Structures are given as structure tokens and as C-alpha cells.
Amino acid sequence: MNLVSKIMVFNFVSDNLGMSLVIGGFLVFIILVVIVFFTLRKQTLKNYQAMLYDDEVTELKNANYLRRNFNNIVISFDGDVSFYYINLDNFKNYNDLLGHKLSNQILIEVANRLLNAVAPYKTVYRIHSDHFVVIFPGNKVERERFSSELLLKLKEPYVISIHTMKLTASMGRYDITMTNPRFNDCLLRSELALQEAKSLGKDQMVVYSRNIKRKNSEAFTMYRFIKDALKEGDFFLEYQPIIDTKTKRIVGLESLIRIRHSHEIYFPQEIIAYAEKYHLIDEIDHYVVHESFKAFKRFEKTKYPLEFMSVNISTQEIKNLGFIEYIHEEALQNNIDPSKITVEFTETYYPEDYTREAEFINALKSHGFKVAIDDFGSGYSSMVRLSENQLDKIKIDRAFITNLSNSPTNQKIVAAIVQLSHGFELDVIAEGVENQEDYAILNSLNVKYLQGFLFHKPLSEKTCMKLFKEALTTEKK
Length: 477
Prior knowledge:
Elements: H1 3-53, E1 61-62, H2 63-77, E2 81-88, H3 91-98, H4 100-118, E3 124-128, E4 131-137, H5 140-155, E5 158-160, E6 163-165, E7 169-176, H6 183-199, E8 205-207, H7 210-232, E9 235-244, E10 250-261, E11 264-266, H8 268-277, H9 281-300, E12 308-312, H10 322-333, E13 341-346, H11 354-366, E14 370-376, H12 382-388, E15 393-396, H13 398-401, H14 408-423, E16 427-430, H15 436-444, E17 449-450, H16 461-476
Parallel strand pairs: 1-3, 7-8, 10-12, 12-13, 13-14, 14-15, 15-16, 16-17
Antiparallel strand pairs: 2-4, 2-7, 3-4, 5-6, 9-10, 9-17, 10-11
Helix pairs in contact: 3-4, 4-5, 9-10
């Protein structure tokens, strides 16, 4: 082989060796990229799952995790299992008092106590805020013992920073009986039991039962009934005349909401509680204001000297400053003098609502509306409100007026309320006046306005118009 041939062979081998090294290096690089990719992917997936399934504050698993793994968790116990829905009582007050940082320490302590109670199962989950779920296996006797222990554990004093405080919890329990239970069913039933525990005074456990199921079914039926009535326009208003005690003339009207359905009439006490509970009350209050204002303008056209109209609203509106804007706009659009509209609602029973209620009343009065409190004397802040001098009128609780002539005690109560009201220059309305004896007593006490079947039951707009026209005709004669 000559020199040229040797050089050519050497170059060929060198070129192929270099190419092999390049290809090999590239393959190594690809392998490293794949390894890094899958490592990062695994870590990212792990981080994502942590974000999706772990509660950041308590480090418990959350509702997403429980929903996904619920059946496997229940099946793993291979026996009787109970589902507990737990909520701290009045936790919002502590949250407002201590701030989020210290309040989170309470939640962490609650989580630890629950974990200790169910050890070694670790079946404790934070659903949201101060709501927890515990899944616990055991027969009837074991469930009762566990429920009592759980309430006691959560009642032990909490030492958070420099603060020592006592909290209680309410619990709803659902004993799982289905072969293939569904998470949403168990959560709903235990939550209904929890609501029952809350309504009974808190700091207790209630087991889901047929009675709770029946009450929930009734509530759902009423919810659908109200929704359909709003949609189909089954609501309407009646107007009960308000009488001047001395002259017995009609000087005002109170608008009262009704539902007409399948030839039956449903009244406020059958409607309002459910509407408030299921957040339908705003639509109803807006309807009452809108229709009452339109009717008031029509009444004004009769030239009858109607002094005012009372419009009933829910106490829930005190938390809704948007309502102030709504009623003000309705008055402007209908060209109504706000001083001729009395906004009437039942006084609150809870001290924590009083500040909001005071702000709400002041906002109404700043637009010129008059304010009256219904069922005066039944709530928390009767005397406090008198001292604040916020009101224009009070309506004495019907319970004190009904059969007044046969109750010396109620006569003393009514006399005291009237005397106090007059001292603060407030007008007094007595409702539920049904006989001449009661009228005579209220007249002697100088109660300014009266309502009741002794004078008029609630009337249709058409009947009110007829009354006004007859009264005007009589006066002309």
C-alpha cells in the first residue's frame, strides 16, 4: 500500500471515529435531557398534587383528596363507618379578634386534636375555613363514645400565644349504610345534621335521621315553590289600613306580600323564613319596594290625604348597603317624597348585628325615609335603640296587644313602652287590635296609630281605592 492509500485509510478511520464520538455525545445528552425532564415532571406532578390535595394551613388532606379517594377510604375499614362534619362555633368572632395568623394556630390545634382522636387512622380532612370532616369506624357503642370524646377534646382550653380561650364545636354525624357510598351524599347528610345541632344551641352532636331528611325535603319543596313563584309572577301585595286612633280615619297603609298558587293564598310567615335561609329574600324585598311605590303613586292620584305607606323588608337587608341605593332610586323614579315612606323591619336579636343595623337606619334616614321597628320589645336592642333616638315610629309586638283587655301584665308593658316612646317623641303603632275593649285601652294611652281586624283586614289595591273614593265623597257632603 502506497503512502497515499495509507493516508486515505487513516482519514476515513479518523472521520468515522469523530462521527461516532459526536453521535455518542449527542445520545448521552439526549438521555440526560430525558432523565432531567422526567425528574422535573415527577417533582412538578408531586408539587401539583400537594397544591391540589394538601391543606396549606393544617397540612391535612383537603376536600379534593377526600372526594377522589372517598370510596377506597371507606372500603378499607371493612365495617361500620361514620362520617362526621365538624364546625367550630362562632369562630368568626375569634378570627376578627385575633387576626388570621393566630386564628390559623387555632385551626392547627383543632387538626392535631382530631388526629389524636382518630389515631392511628389519620382520617381527618379540612373541607374549608373552620369546617372539618372525620371518618371513624366502629359499632353503635363505639360511635357514641367517640362522639362524646370528640366534643370534650375540642372544648379543652386553647393556648394561642399569650391568649387562653375556650371554644366549642357542633357536629353532624351520618352513619354510612350504603354499599357504595357517595361523598356528596355523605357530606350533605352530615351537614344537615350539623345545621340541626347549630339550631339546637351548638356545642353538641346530632345524627342524621329520617326527621332531618323530612325537614330538608320540606325546605327544598318550599325553595322550589318560592323560585317558581318569582319566575311565574305569583307574588302580589295587599294593603292593611293604619288608623288614626282619635279620628278613626285611614292615614296609612302597610304593604304585605302574598303568594297566590293553585287557588290558595300563602302568607309572609310561610315565605320569609325560607326565602332568607336560601338567599331569595333580595328578590322579594325588591319586588315589595317596586310594587308598593307604584301603588302609592296610584293612591295619591285619588287625592285622598294618605300620610304614609309602610314597606316591610327583611332584617337581612341591614347587611346589604346596595338595598339603600335601590330604594332611593325607586323613590326618585316614581317621584315619591321619601318622608312618606316608612321602612319597617323587625329588630335584631343579636348584639353583634346592632352596629350594622344602626348604620343601615342612619343611611335610610339620610335619604329622607322614615324608619319603624316591627315587633318592638321582642329583640335585643329595644332600650338601646330608644337611647340612640334613631327611629321615627315603633310598632308594638302583637303578642302584647292581642287580648290586651284581659292581661293586666301586658297593659303595664304597653303603657311603659308608650310612655318611653312619647318621651323620645316617637309615634307608636299598635297592631292586632281586634275588639273595642283593646281599642279603648290604647286610646286612653294615647297610642297614635292602630291596625287590626277591628277596623280593616288586609285589602286589595282595588278595595283601597274604593274606600278612599267613598271617604272623599262623604267628606264633600
